[in-house]
Structures
1.
Amino acid sequence: VKTLGSMLIEVGEGGLETLLQRPAVMNRLVPAMLRLSGVADLSLVELTFNFWASLELSLEELPDGVHDAFIPVFLHLFRVLLPRCQFPLHSVPAEERDAFRDFRHLIGDCLKDCVRVIGTSTAVSVIREGLLSTNAIDSWQPAEAFLFGLRTVSSVLERRESEVLPVLVPELLGPAYRRHPRHLYAVLLIIGCLAD
């Protein structure tokens, strides 16, 4: 899978402009790249990030109709990557933990690319849904992953978004995110980022 995935990524990155002009090829490549973004091998997932960044940049230069056709793709990618920000539920050696932290920041860059395509309201709605789904879970890691995602994308969010952020921010300040120090820390960072 890794060799085939690497070849596919190379094709995607190398011929992106040509592929955008050939929808039939792009319609086969993009689902394959989405599948690669969801595999268990994080080193393979990481290889897809340049493709997504290049695609997002290319979409900025194309007409809105082409851009809009990719919203479902980037929404799917956003939903796939957010839970991957979750720390392991078991303890891991310090070296693995540090490598995962680095990987999370790479995911964060890709999440920002997604937000630029799907928009603020959609991105914050997805994060809010994820946070609500973690309320009944005992471990701190699932909610922290979504909080990390929100903090990471906060620099590209439209501050004047008036649908979801005004609902989410008071929820973040509520008791659900005061139970664990990592949640509280993440919320404080998010509020600081949104206040800039």
Note: Residues 94-118 form the longest helix (25 residues).
2.
Amino acid sequence: LKEGKQKEKSLTNQIIKIQEDINETENSIKKLEGNIQDTKIKVVEVQGKLARAEQMVIEQSKALNARLRSMYLNDSGISVLEVIFGSESITDFMSNMDMVEKIYDNDTKMLNRLKDNKDLIGKEKQRLASLENTLEKQQTQHENKKNNLANSQHNIAVLKNQVALDNKKLAEEIDALNQEANRITSEIRRLQSKGT
């Protein structure tokens, strides 16, 4: 009987420990689900930023190509050098030179913006890949924790079942002992009543 009580106490302690682990795992799963949701939001934000940057690069490339075609490869056959050296006076020369310089500066700025946007696309693609990798790891971790939780819940059910079976067996043994004690008591009373 004493051994049964000790076994029951041990199983109850195991159940309490597993229940604590289950609670901790459930809290961890909730936190992880929040992290997964945050990562998904970041992925969508980066995808949007990436799409906008790619669209901007396309538009800038088209504009630059059109500009270069019209300026440097114009159909009239007049080149930039012909405009500068075809000046009729020094004032005309300075004005043409200033205009060509502004066009060149504008083209340089456009090329720099194009390069910056392409750099941004490269960085955003790396960030997106990193976020997707993080998301995949979080989802794997989430699945593992859910599996561990299911295993813990199964273990606690098995232990509770074991405690119930042990309690039932213990109750049957106590009943058997009580019946034996009642039988012995009855026999003693019967023998005492015969003797008196």
Note: The CA atoms of residues 20 and 67 lie 70 Å apart.
